Automatic annotation (TrEMBL):
GO terms for molecular function: ATP binding; double-stranded RNA binding; hydrolase activity; RNA helicase activity. This is RNA helicase. GO terms for cellular component: nucleolus; spliceosomal complex. Its EC number is 3.6.4.13. Residues 274-448 form the Helicase C-terminal domain. It catalyses: ATP + H2O = ADP + phosphate + H(+). InterPro entries: AAA+_ATPase, DEAD-box_helicase_OB_fold, DNA/RNA_helicase_DEAH_CS, HA2_WH, Helicase-assoc_dom, Helicase_ATP-bd, Helicase_C-like, P-loop_NTPase. It comes from Sesamum indicum. It is an enzyme of class 3 (hydrolase). PROSITE patterns: DEAH_ATP_HELICASE (PS00690), HELICASE_ATP_BIND_1 (PS51192), HELICASE_CTER (PS51194). Gene3D superfamilies: 1.20.120.1080, P-loop containing nucleotide triphosphate hydrolases. Belongs to the DEAD box helicase family. DEAH subfamily.
């Protein structure tokens, strides 16, 4: 009718447009869900879960396990009595992005029916029924709720990754499930199931169950369903660990992927990756590119290099969109990888190995794999735990190339010669075999599991690593002479930080400088606050100088944080919060500070400040008393002390290793007599990073348990 047509205002048109689009998106999502390989076996999976208390599900990456199974279970009535379906992920990025996706698929706001929890961030509510979280977070939850009683189903996802948290969780869940299947915590103690692990373990399991019991005697418990999901085709290890548990396989969909190798080994894989990105962009047909890099620094440096080269291409070739994804990227930015590129643009995703199996990014046709990965290693003889960059395993290389063939035939460019592939290790060593166990031991002890050696690990850690990690906890005052958790140890276990950082906060509250230490620890918890692009090295050094403290990097980081805080507060006085934050990003850029890292540090700071306050630690400032703060640093980081040698290098006192101050440190040229450091990085040399000057005599005074009898 004419009258209606004339009534149609622009606003209504807009609304109608939005509505149509909304329906379109929902339909698209429904279509996508139905087309996933896992959708064909929904009914069968529900039956299997009903029949089996422990089920192992193996399925190729991208088949829909992580996003779909929890929804099937929810619809299948597994939350009927208010129980929650918990899904653990080894990586925070996966927990966050998948939760967002599933909330959208369910048509609910994030944090309502579908939510997530990661360290320093809780996006759940009392109505949350599907909760994605990191494996580390569920372990922490066990401290407060030893039976994990709010969960009706727990899915340990990405179990093939074999992170130390996943491994420990499996042991813990095995016990929790046993207890809960008997209905009441009393029963386990008396009627302990005679089991599969032989006489000795059986006895030790008994001790562990008894200890867990102390927390929660006599409570009525409902049974727990346990599902272990893995992308590795070998389910045997999990099945055997759970006493011959049933394993089912979900068929994936994989198109052929052409694998290309270089003729020669590449000396600079960053450069090689950069060249390959442009080669694909200029010579290959449409399709997005996924590049596997080892960390934030590499990703950001390639991001900059691509941006710099783009303007040099002919105008028509500049439609390249670079999108980074790594763990400490703010979560709202992480979702960008899933958005389709604008028409005519090619997306280049620069990712760490989170894109290997944890998250599936649509649209990828080309994969660039330099064959490297950053891993934590542990040397039990020295007690050091450097992050090093090593070659991937064959399994990882295959997972990476597989990412190119999810939606159609693809290509994978391995930046090494073919014969190198055959020399790679078949699979990655589980993290529990190559990490410092002090954090895990602290948590197990806090759960009442005192017999660490007797714990039913899926794969036993080295005895030497256990001993060394216990020694570290003892020196930090977390354990008593009889290896029980001390009062300080209990406090340390409550903080979501590495034991040394937790101890630093506790010590700082005694030194009256907790306000400063909270900032220092938050800043140390993020990667690379400063950046120094090669072509602007001088300018970045000048910028750094305005914050730098002659006492070292810890105080320098404190100065940066405070300066940024001051800037932000001032800015907020005259502009809106959004504008002020935008100004802060500009300020960061001018000062060669990584605004993403700073933002992350600010978030961590507010969280650990809350934790400290909840624990009753006194948050006071030492004001201008720098000496006090330095002494507190010595009292906290004494395990990482080093003394200058006549040749200008340093000897790390607890490990005996020869180390050098990293060139990024403000003390690089100053070379004081005695230092403490935050971490040791091993490249071609042993470097120590985040270094501060201390007085050697303070060590004996403040850490007599370590240094009294030395020298
Ligand atoms: P699996 O766990 O078996 O590897 P997922 O459940 O993670 O599989 O992924 C299933 C599908 O969902 C994939 O095709 C993936 O591209 C898609 N998907 C996952 N997260 C998102 C997202 N945030 N946005 C768009 N698609 C997504
Ligand atoms: Mg998955």
């Amino acid at each position: 009718m004419p009258s209606m047509a004339s009534n149609t205002s622009d606003k209504t048109k807009q609304l109608n447009g939005t509505k149509l689009d909304f329906f379109g998106r929902r339909q698209k999502i429904e279509q996508h869900r139905k087309a996933l390989p896992i959708a064909t076996v929904e009914k069968r999976l529900l039956e299997e879960v009903s029949k089996n208390d422990i089920l192992i599900i193996v399925g190729e990456t991208g088949s829909g396990k992580t996003t779909q199974l929890p929804q099937y279970l929810f619809n299948g009535g597994f939350c009927r009595n208010g129980g929650i379906i918990g899904i653990t992920q080894p990586r925070r990025v996966a927990a966050v992005t998948v939760a967002k996706r599933v909330a959208e698929e369910c048509g609910v706001a994030l944090g309502q029916k579908v939510g997530y929890g990661i360290r320093f961030e809780d996006v759940t509510s009392s109505s949350t029924r599907i909760k994605y979280m990191t494996d580390g977070l569920l372990l922490r939850e066990a401290l407060l709720d030893p039976y994990l009683s709010k969960y009706s189903v727990i899915i340990v996802d990405e179990a093939h990754e074999r992170t130390v948290h996943t491994d420990v969780l499996l042991g813990l869940l095995k016990n929790v499930q046993k207890t809960r299947s008997l209905g009441s915590s009393d029963v386990v103690h008396n009627g302990h199931q005679k089991g599969e692990n032989g006489a000795i373990l059986e006895k030790e399991n008994d001790i562990q169950s008894t200890n867990i019991l102390k927390h929660n005697q006599g409570k009525k418990l409902s049974p727990l369903k346990l599902i272990i999901m893995s992308a590795s085709l070998d389910a045997k290890i999990f099945s055997e660990y759970f006493g011959g548990a049933r394993a089912v396989h979900v068929q994936g969909r994989q198109y052929p992927v052409d694998i290309l190798y270089t003729h020669q080994p590449e000396t600079d894989y960053i450069d090689a990756a950069l060249i390959t990105i442009f080669q694909i962009h200029l010579e290959e047909g449409p399709g997005d590119v996924l590049v596997f890099l080892t960390g934030q620094e590499e990703i950001e440096s390639i991001e900059r290099l691509v941006q710099e080269r783009l303007p040099k291409l002919p105008e028509s070739k500049r439609k390249l969109l670079v999108i980074p994804i790594f763990a400490s990227l703010p979560s709202e930015k992480q979702m960008k990888v899933f958005m389709p590129a604008p028409v005519g643009f090619r997306k280049v995703i620069l990712a760490t190995n989170i894109a290997e199996t944890s998250v599936t990014i649509p649209g990828i046709k080309y994969v660039i794999d330099p064959g490297m990965v950053k891993v934590r290693t542990y040397d039990a003889s020295t007690g050091i735990e450097p992050l090093i960059i090593v070659k991937t395993s064959k399994a990882q290389a295959l997972q990476r190339s597989g990412r190119a063939g999810r939606e159609g035939p693809g290509k994978c460019y391995r930046l090494y010669p073919e014969n190198e592939f055959y020399k790679l290790k078949d699979s990655t060593t589980p993290e529990i075999k190559r990490c410092n166990l002090s954090n895990v031991i602290l948590q197990l002890k806090a759960l009442g599991i005192d017999d660490i050696v007797g714990f039913d690990f899926i794969e036993e850690p080295d005895r030497m690593a256990i001993i060394k990690s216990m020694e570290l906890l003892f020196l930090l005052g977390a354990l008593t002479d009889s290896s029980k958790l001390s009062e300080v140890g209990h406090q340390m276990a409550r903080l979501p930080l590495d034991p040394i950082y937790s101890k630093a906060l506790i010590v700082a509250s005694q030194f009256n400088c907790l306000e400063e230490m909270l900032i220092v620890v938050a800043m140390l918890s993020v990667e690379s606050i400063f950046y120094a692009p090669r072509e602007k090295l001088e300018e970045s050094r000048t910028a750094l100088r305005s914050f730098s403290s002659p006492e070292g990097d810890h105080l320098t980081l404190l100065n940066v944080y405070r300066a940024s805080d001051e800037f932000l507060e001032k800015s907020k006085l005259v502009s809106s919060k959004e504008k002020a934050e935008k100004n802060l990003r500009k300020w960061c850029k001018e000062n060669f500070i990584n605004s993403r890292s700073l933002k992350h540090a600010r978030d961590i700071h507010s969280q650990i400040r809350r934790n400290a306050e909840q624990m009753g630690l006194r948050v006071t400032s030492c004001g201008d008393d720098i000496l006090l703060l330095r002494r507190c640093l010595a009292a906290s980081f004494f395990l990482n002390a080093a003394l200058k040698q006549p040749d200008g290098t340093y000897r790390a006192l607890s490990s005996g290793l020869m180390v050098q101050i990293h060139p990024s440190s403000v003390l690089f040229r100053m070379k004081p007599e005695c230092i403490i450091f935050d971490e040791l990085v091993r490249t071609n040399q042993n470097y120590v990073r985040n270094v501060s000057r201390i007085d050697f005599l303070w060590l004996a005074e403040l850490a007599p348990q370590c240094y009294a009898l030395q020298e």
